[in-house]
Amino acid sequence: MVKYSVIIPVYNEALVIRETYKRLKTVMEQTDGPYELLFVNDGSEDETLSILKELSVKDETVKYLDFSRNFGHQIAITAGMDYAAGEAVIIIDADLQDPPELILQMIQKWKEGYEVVYAKRTKRKGETVFKKVTAHVFYRLLRASTEIDIPLDTGDFRLIDRKVCDQLVSMRERSRFVRGLVSWVGFKQTAIEYERDERFAGETKYPLKKMLRFSMDGITSFSYKPLKLASLLGFLLSFSSVIWMFVVLYLKLFTDSTVAGWSSLLMATLFFNGVVLIMLGVMGEYIGRIYDEVKHRPLYILKDCRGVGQKHEKVLQYAE
Ligand code: UDP
Ligand code: MG
Fold first, then answer.
1. Going by CA atoms, what residue is nearest to atom 19 of ligand 1?
2. Residue among 51, 73, 45 at smallest CA distance from 64
3. Pocket test for ligand 1, best of 206, 212, 215 (most atoms within 8 A of CB)
4. What is the pLDDT of residue 318?
């Protein structure tokens, strides 16, 4: 039986993966129980897989799952949880932005009785101003739009207890926002703070497009507020139109001047149509996600794996 499972999602991380392995190994050797390093290869196009194969031959604590294509970071973490066997499960990025040494502190907290120990970033080094600003805004927007207590500035770097992992694997929603789901399940949670390092090598695997999709998944999975915005805007705009109508009538009936020409008309039309189209887009975001859910496709497809046992029984129940 393994006591600790470390899940590491990897997508084109050939430049960092050996170093990650080394640092993780050093840390995990200091723990008090058997462990597994479960890499999830998310359809890498570089040497990642062959390095993983090589490591897993040399070291039996190294296990891997290999996806048939790129399914995305959040799905990769989920797959890791489906196969993790440990009593405590640790999720960490491959690029060493999350220092593995922190795992020891997490384990300490876990032993004190906490079921989720998440790592909160106090600083981000070596990231673009754009990324820092958008991330800052996103976490605050997310927090404002949902009733669930999702901690600020917290990524997926965390330790979760077996109980929490069991709950998470039974949630098979497709637009996954794992850190939100962890907050949603509850249990006894605590934070440890850290400064986020620079990426060890290579570049971010979250281009703007993926970042936008990720933040939309976060907000739509945990809030209906964007939909309610439609009714709010509707009320506001109708109300202001009525006032405007009175102004126009007044000018027409009681003064010599009338409201001038077609430019104001055009402006109003463009504005209202813009609002309507935006709200249709917001609805589209939700409807698209409903469509994804009802198709009920598996979350991911494995091409290969090594060292892992059966999928978690709760996943098998869902007949994926
Ligand atoms: N990742 C993944 N699939 C993807 C994108 C990223 O498995 O489609 C992994 C990546 O290899 C890394 C982690 O997710 O281990 C976080 O990605 P990255 O460091 O590029 O994101 P950033 O830190 O720039 O937000
Ligand atoms: Mg990173």
1. 204
2. 51
3. 206
4. 66
